[in-house]
Amino acid sequence: MKINGTPYRSVWLNEKDGWSVHIFDQTRLPFSLDILRLTTPQAVAHAICTMQVRGAPLIGAVAAYGLALALREDASDTSLENQASMLAATRPTAINLRWAIERMLTRLRPTPPAQRVAAAYEEAGRICDEDAAQNEAIGHYGLALIREIAKTKKAGSPINLLTHCNAGWIATVDWGTALAPIYMAHDEGLNVHVWVDETRPRNQGAALTAWELGSHGVPHTVIVDNAGGHLMQHGQVDMVIVGTDRVTRTGDVANKIGTYLKALAAHDNAIPFWVALPSTTIDWTVADGVQEIPIEERAASEVTHVSGKTAEGSVARVQITPDGSSAANPAFDVTPARLVTGLITERGTCPATAQGLRSLFPEI
């Protein structure tokens, strides 16, 4: 995707040295576009934990490069296993992280230590390329759904889509998941408009999704998280489309906190609720998402404090709760499969059921 006309991926190697890893510092967006140069696995782990880099597919890709950086320091078997465990422990909910580390280990364990660094960079690069291709395919399959909605709209009426959190290209290596079909629809000339949930407490919708859509020229409106149901009741939402951090083999979906409430409202108003994901986000070992998917509990300060731009143009962090008030901060919730209209993957769409997933991935 492009920023001010310049194409970028969300993670890339430094062109000069060929081995250090570059990412955008997502905690600085939308007010500042800062690029971080990561040179150690510890720096990668810190970037993931602090959400300088976030988004399930992107976390996995960056962690893969983190393992390559670790092997530059020590390519022994012990280092390989220890550094892989350290990186895998940085975020518990997103399954892509564990998938990427396990794929790297499968490639590197039988490789002689002297050849591991080159092999690690090669495999991490392949993970990135595959993610970009998968998300582009997701975009095409999701575009077909938006085209069908367009056929039902009166001439000149916008296609109103609602999304929660950020599932755009900044959350993946390129294209994004839930936003990929929206970009393609906009580029095709369809009259799309996006309701962007602010997505408290970290405001990934207001900060990241709105920034992405605005940079691409897609019409959008930021709304408070609790406005979605009202808009649905008044016929102002044609489809909800979100990403996900983990999908069970039965179709349950873990996504940013608040997604479950959007699914309930969509179900109550007979509005399609679609989830876009690459197959690397499917956890084939889990059947019951509510009971089995670990939900990350993040710092209370994310709830009690908020960052924003002052009237003078500086960025400040302020407290919004009374002194002494405690805060809970579960980062994700699980939407049961019964509330999901369907899943959009790189192989096509399917019902959010075990049978639906097996129809697309029979080899599993």
Automatic annotation (TrEMBL):
Per its UniProt entry, which superkingdom is the organism in? Bacteria
Pathway named in the protein's UniProt entry: Amino-acid biosynthesis; L-methionine biosynthesis via salvage pathway; L-methionine from S-methyl-5-thio-alpha-D-ribose 1-phosphate: step 1/6
Ion transport in keyword set: no
Note the site residues: Transition state stabilizer. Answer: C165
- Print the keywords alphabetically: Amino-acid biosynthesis, Isomerase, Methionine biosynthesis
Annotated residues that bind substrate are located at: R54, G55, A56, R91, Q204, N255, K256
Gene Ontology annotations of biological process type: L-methionine salvage from methylthioadenosine
Active site, UniProt feature:
D245
- Which reactions does this protein catalyse? 5-(methylsulfanyl)-alpha-D-ribose 1-phosphate = 5-(methylsulfanyl)-D-ribulose 1-phosphate; 5-deoxy-alpha-D-ribose 1-phosphate = 5-deoxy-D-ribulose 1-phosphate
Q: Which PANTHER family match?
A: METHYLTHIORIBOSE-1-PHOSPHATE ISOMERASE
Give a short account of what the protein does. Answer: Catalyzes the interconversion of methylthioribose-1-phosphate (MTR-1-P) into methylthioribulose-1-phosphate (MTRu-1-P). Also catalyzes the interconversion of 5-deoxyribose 1-phosphate and 5-deoxyribulose 1-phosphate. Part of a bifunctional DHAP-shunt salvage pathway for SAM by-products.
Its family remark reads: Belongs to the EIF-2B alpha/beta/delta subunits family. MtnA subfamily.
**Full protein name:** Methylthioribose-1-phosphate isomerase
Name the source organism: Acetobacter orientalis
Q: What high-level taxonomic lineage is stated for the organism?
A: Bacteria, Pseudomonadati, Pseudomonadota, Alphaproteobacteria, Acetobacterales
